[in-house]
Amino acid sequence: MPEFVPTLVDARGFIPHGHCYLWKSDLVWLHVVADAVIGIAYYSISFLLVYFVHERRDLPFHWIFLMFGSFIVACGTTHFFEVWTLWHPTYWLSGLMKIITAWVSVGTAVLLVSLIPKVLAFPSPAQLEVINLELRNEITQRQEAEAALQRANEQLEIRVQERTAELAQINESLQTEIESRKRQEEVLNRREQEFKALVEHAPDIITRFDRELRHVYINPAITRATGLLPETFIGKTNRDLGMPEDLIVSWENSVHQVFETGQEESLEFQFPTPSGLKYYQVRLVPELGKDGSIKSTLSIARDISEHKQVEEALLRRSRQLEILSRASHEINTVLEIPTVMRTMMAFAIELAGASAGTYGINKQGQMVFTEYNQNGKIYSVDIAFERGMGVSGWVMETRKPYVSNHAESDPYVLPYLQKAFAFYNLVNIPIFNRKGELIGCFELHNKANQRPFSDNDITMLQGLAASAAVALENAQMLVERQQAEKALRESEQRLGAIFNQAAVGIAQVGLDGKWLLVNQKLCDIVGYTHQQLLQQTFQDITHPDDLSISLQYLQQMIAGEIQYYSLEKRYICKNSLPIWINLTASLVQDSSGEPQYFVVIVEDISERKTTEQERQKLISVIENSSDFIGLASMTGEVLYVNKAGKQLVGLDHTDEVKTTFILEYLMEENRVEYLEKIVPVLMNHGRWEGEYHFRNFKTNQPIVVHHNCFLIADSRTDEAIAIATVTRDMTERKRAQEELQTSYNLLQSVINSTPDAIVVKDLQSRYVMINAAVTDIQGKPESEILGRDDSQLFPPETALLILENDRRIMITGETEIIEEDLLIGGVHKTYLSTKSVWRDAQGNTIGLIVIARDITERKRAEQEIRELNQNLERRVAERTAELEAINQELESFSYSVSHDLRAPLRGIDGFSQALLDRYADPLDEKGKHYLRRIRAGTQRMGELIDDLLKLSRVTRSEMQPTQVDLSALAREIAAELQRIQPERQVEWAITPRLVAHGDARLLRIVLENLFNNSWKFTSALNLARIKFDVFLQADAKPIYFVKDNGAGFDMAYVDKLFGAFQRLHSETQFPGTGIGLATVQRIIHRHGGRVWAEGAVKQGATFYFTL
Amino acid sequence: MAQRNALLLVEDNPDDEELTLLAFEQSRITNEVVVAHDGVEALDYLFGTGMYAGRDLSVMPALILLDLQLPRINGLEVLQRLRADTRTKFLPVVILTTSNEQKDLMNSYSLGCNSYIRKPVDFQQFMTAVQQLGMYWLILNELPSI
User: Of A250, A239, A256, A254, which Cα lies nearest the Cα of A294?
Assistant: First the structure.
């Protein structure tokens, strides 16, 4: 086959069919068109056949149509091939197509053969015509009948429609009703389901009773409560169910009540259940039937047992707490141990609701019970428990409470006791003190089958035990305190006896020194009563000289430095006399070591002290005597020599004295005489006295003494027992006399050599002493002056003057220095007299001392100076006036210069101008030039005059110095310069805050001139720099300077700079009058300062100045 | 109402007198200028005495230019007197002098001058000053009528 397909389409070797038509185009196209039209027509027929068959499915034998269609298509195709083969000679392919067409045509023919008989069976058109006719008649009849029927039908139809509409309406409303019913029913059902579920699962017992009080409904809660199924209850009353009689009455009453009144009722009841006593709260609610009558009653019973129990427990607990608080209070008000225990017992019984109780006290390891409380009655018992024995023994060991709710079978409960006291249960509570020691216990018993002891009971009882423990401790303490107090009282009594009857003063003294407690002896010593003493402090009665040492000890003791001290001191007794006492004091502290008070013991030692003092005084007198006092034995051994004695004879130590004999104190040459002449007198008369010589041990030189020796006799036997001496050194006195004389002589010569007159006058103004000056002045010998008074020495007027002065000073007693003009020997003299009162040793006025100096010369000199001064002042005034006049003149001169010199200048200038203006024509250029030169000259002259005036004003004006801010001035001037020539580029460096003391106006002129100069001489520069600053000299004086970088100057001409009209530059170069720096210099000089300059040509200039 | 047209120039220096008049002329100030050559003449004119006896005193100068340095009675005294008289006390007085002494300034203002001008040496400047003076005192300034 693979070869076959290419063969089919292979046209090689064949000639296209067109050749047959000789490619005659009209012939070719004739075939083409004919074949194509046939093909298209065949295809259309086939298509229509298929469409027909498709539309008429009822057609018998429709497949035959399809067969027709197929072979017609095949025929059509062969025609198209005819066209194709005209140009493409694929004759194999067109042949194949013809075969296919043949096959389909044959098939159709065969099938058609078999079909023909069947087709022939179809009626013929005539038969059909007959049938048709019959049928047409029938149809007509039918049509008539149908029409009648139609009409009837139509009527019926209308009625049916009407009826249907009605029915539809009814139906609709019915439907709505049914649906709403259904919905309601559903809701109701659901609600019922919900309610039912609610009721079924409600924890409350919900029951419905009918009028006969029978259970109609009961929810499953009953089963939970009673264990019985709900069915058990239905149809039965509570009475039937065996409700207790007392309950049933109130129950039935309540339910009847509900039925009668229609009001809700509520009641509570309780009944025993297998799980114990139950409490119920019941609400009875009437249920109304459709007619409004009460059909049934709904009972909702709620189990409130727990609530009830809690309530009861709370009640019991609050009652217990109340008992406990009462117990605590009452127990604590008793202070005896048995009473405490007894009270506690009673409360314990009340607290636990027990019927009996007993308490034990721990005594040396045994718990001893002595009382038994039953129904408030107390019986004596005597039972003691060892540790580990019975319940109490167990409690002692474990220190825990013990509860036995079945005492009969409890192994710890001793059976004989249980029988003896016939208790049913017990609780035993230990009692501990604050230190945790077991001090006792109590036990409660219940006789009948009462409530068991609960944990709560134990807690409460422990609380009670704690209360009791405190009370017991208090009681114990009380007992101990009472014992201690008793002991203290006894001790105090004993101490009191000692205190009051002691032979020494005893006292308690506060830290502030106040007497707190004193005994009689102390009062006796100081002479005050108890009350008087207690109102004072020890400081009050301590001798002022002893106070500081006392206080010092006291402070040391308070500070803990010493424990006690002992001191001999003096008190001042009530009679103001001091008394010597020996004081021993110690500090009493409390347990924390805090000082509380002092205990002092005072011993009167006045007597001892007096004796001792007397002796001490005596010794002191002797020891401190300036005389030689000595004592020797009858055999001449020296026993004692006082201080002055030792010093006199050159002995240094007492030890040296002890080895000497009397004779050694004498000059060797005197000893024999002493033994032979003086000792016998002493022995016979008991005394010798006279001038003698002692010997200095060191120098062996004699000492002139007044020697007094005597015997000391025993007061009882009158026998001589010692030799004593009181010997006075006479050396000093002798020398003193000599010195006095020398001093007197010196004084005398001083007095006499002084040029001042010194006069001493007595109360009668008589001269009692004068010096040499007086005799000189008076020109009389001393003898003619002493004893006389002033009236005898001076003329009467002078004498009177002196007398008046003297009297005044005697009366006032004050020293005066007065000038006295005296006429002496016909000459007037002035004296400066110092006059003071002469007093004796007692201060009484006994005369007058006058020291007078002759100041006549000085007075004259003073007068001369005064005159000279006056002269000088006058001359100064004259000179000032002259100067003022000159100044005035100068001023008017400069005034006229300013006025009169300028006036003609103005004329010259003005008329030159007028000439230029009005007579320009007749003048040639030369003439005009000369006029301009005249004008320039006058203007320059005007400037010169102005500057000269300024200069003169600088000198004339009055200085008004103030603090001047030079920097501010400088800035102002700089700003002004810049304002006039804003085009100039100048870099200013002005140091701020340069403040100087001077005249503000003048200093401004200085700065103006210097700045102007700098401004002017830097005008040729593009960038000028001008600086104003200061630096300090070595003496810290400031030097101000203005520095520029301008034209500068040649230092060779530096001294010409400051002269008036001196200029270093030509007028055309830099304009100016040459007055500026002269002005500056004058101002600086007026300020007492200095001005100078430094510079170099084209290198700028610096001007320095000080003020 | 008093007539005020004239200018009273009190000036003893004939140069200054002429220059001042020249300046007025060049400044187009055409008011009549009465010249007094000293203080006495000035006062005579103002009060109608001496050489001006019988003068119509209702005519008072609109401006008085007063020099200070004057023969016989000096400018300050003239000023003092005319300020003391009700007829002349409001007359504008401009001190026109060569002096710029502080003392003269103080005295002039103390006595009530209205203005103080120092005569510049430069004639151009002097003319400018006179021009401005005329402009101000003769045209701008208002005076109370007496």
Answer: A256
